Every structure is written in C-alpha cells, then in structure tokens.
Amino acid sequence: MLHENSIANFGDIDMAKGHVQPSGRESPFGENEIIVSKTDLKGHLTYTNDVFLRVAGYKTAKEVIGQPHSIIRHPDMPRSVFKLLWQTIEAKGEIFAYVVNMAINGDHYWVLAHVTPSFDAQGNVVGYHSNRRKPDPDKVAKIVPIYKALLAKESEVANRKDGMNMAYDFLMTDLQNKGIGYDEFVLTL
To answer: Domains of the chain: which residue ranges?
Structure first.
C-alpha cells in the first residue's frame, strides 16, 4: 500500500530547507563515485555514505540521519515520479529513475538512481536502499523536457495530490501508448 507520508518524505521539500532556492550550479561528483543512502519504511535516512554527504553539502551523517530523504529534493523533480518509485519499491520491486537532487546550498546534481527494498530474514521489507551514479548528460537532456511536462501537469490543479496523480496517469498512459514499461523507457533513453 502506498503510504502518503512516504511520498511526502521522498517528494516534498523539507520545511526547514524550504527557503533554499536552486542556485543553477551543479554539485559535482565523479563518474566512478556512487552515492548511497538507506531509509526506513517511511523514507527517513538511516545511512548515508561520504559521497552523499559531500555532494549534498553536509559535513556529518549526524546532520541527516533521521531526516526525511526529501532534504535533497529539488523543486524541478516531479512528484509523480516519486509516486511511481514508491509504488514499485513498496511492491518489493526495484526501480531505476533519473532524479535531480538539491544540495543544502541550492546546487543541483542529476543521478541515475537504483532503488531497492531491503529485506529481513523472513522476507519482510525493513527499509530501502538507493545507489546513485552520475548519468550520461545526453540522457539527462532527454529527461528534462519530460519532467517539465510532468511538472506542468502537476500544476494544472490546485490540489497537489490530484496534480501528482494526474501527471502519473499521463506518464503511464504515454508509456503504454509507446508499448514500453518504465524500466525499459529509463534504460533505453
């Protein structure tokens, strides 16, 4: 079942950080680096690696552990993509997705995220794990107009949840009309 607070934690700007505006600058990280984070079932950070901290602009893990993963959400990231992400991982599936994140100073960084559920010995989902790599700039250039279209759909109605659902339906219908699933779409950009 999709948890509303889960979407909020991956898909809303943290109120304490809401005053930060995108800077237009890229927060760099290397092609061979992997950004890693783990969350609990509600999307609160339980682990981050040093690359996550450096690229997002944090000095220590203490600053982020227990915080919602949304502390790195960029306003140009469609909530409808997070809805798809949460539906997939809560159904015990894995997902690849292009995501634009925002560092604490407003700098952005694009990633190709691979998000999976973490299981206990009995097969119960106990959290989520995300590995992120630097994406090919040509693929980012292809995803940007798609995300802009999703954001435009999301803003067509005043109710944010309705807008998210409308954009999600738009994306799923578009993929169905093209005869491909989301994973195939992402991996063949």
So the answer is: 4-135
* Distance from C-alpha of 16 to C-alpha of 45, rounded to nearest angstrom: 16
- Please report the pLDDT score of residue 18 as a whole number: 52
Q: Among candidates 70, 99, 73, 95, which has minimal Cα distance to 84?
A: 95
Q: What is the DSSP code (8-state) at residue 94?
A: -
Which listed CATH number (3.40.50.460, 3.60.20.30, 3.30.450.20, 2.40.50.100) goes with 4-135?
3.30.450.20
**Positive or negative CA dihedral for 181, 182, 188, 189?**
positive
Phi, psi of 179 (to 5 degrees): 75, 30
Residues of the chain with pLDDT under 70: 1-18
The CA angle 20-22-24, to the nearest 5 degrees, is 150
| Nearest one of 100, 75, 79 to 167, comparing CA atoms | 79
Alpha-carbon distance of 29 to 14, in angstroms, equals: 23
Q: How far is CA 126 from CA 28, 42, 187, in A?
A: 31, 10, 27
Cβ-based burial of 85 (10 A; exposed 0-12, middle 13-18, buried ≥19) = buried
16-67 pLDDT per residue, tens:
445 789 999 999 999 999 999 999 999 999 999 999 999 999 999 999 999 9
